[in-house]
Amino acid sequence: MIKKEVIKSILEFMEKEMGLYNFKPNFKEQGFIRKDKGAIFFYFFLIYDRTNIKTGEKGFQIEPQINIHIPEIEKYYKEITINSYLKTDWQFITIGNTVANIMANPDGINRKRNQSLDLFVFEEKNIPYVSWELLKYFKEVALPYFLTNNNVKKIDELLNTHPKEYSVHMFFDPYRFIKGTIAAKLAKNPALDDIVSTYSNLIIERDMTDDCKEEMERLKAILPMIHIDG
User: Fold this and answer.
1) Are 137 and 220 contained in the same domain?
2) Containing domain of residue 10, as a range?
3) Cα 36–11–122 angle (5° rounding)?
4) Residues 51-79: pLDDT tens digits?
5) What predicted TM-score, i.e. pTM, was given to this entire model?
6) Which of these three, 148, 167, 198, is where a domain ends?
């Protein structure tokens, strides 16, 4: 078996059940997508080469990941980003992480990293079991996560409640700082000024790239012009 064959088999196995929740397969991106009016949901699968230590058999480890794209936030990020390689909705991620990491850090602070659900495919007969497990985690973890965190108020809460801590909901700091700030503005968070100050200082303290510094400055410049309904 090769990776593409394993992923294709898993997606085909899950397609009918996922369709009940309006998720459509995307074979290129190795997962499923659902587009709602105010949010786009991604449930997709990271796949890694693995070797069975006892038998030496070659196979794969599958880790499901949950990502959410909030267009209301991402449209402002697109205005200020200098990352020209970002092209598709799959690349403009507002929040997300693997299912295992999200489950391991229920308070949202990213203390336990590199967690795993230990789902392995060493033989073709393993695919149905792994697929059923992926469906189980979708229903128990991913779907509630999608339906609970599908608006700017929840994004603001997830990314900005503990601004000085690493967030499991966006482990990539440049995205967390910029998109957390946008969410705070859109959600009318009264602590917006403190959030901007904290993230600006953390960019320096964590010795982040010049690109990140430039994006924050660009965001500060347009922040007063971001429109808030209501």
Assistant:
1) no
2) 3-148
3) 145
4) 888 788 899 999 999 999 999 999 999 99
5) 0.94
6) 148
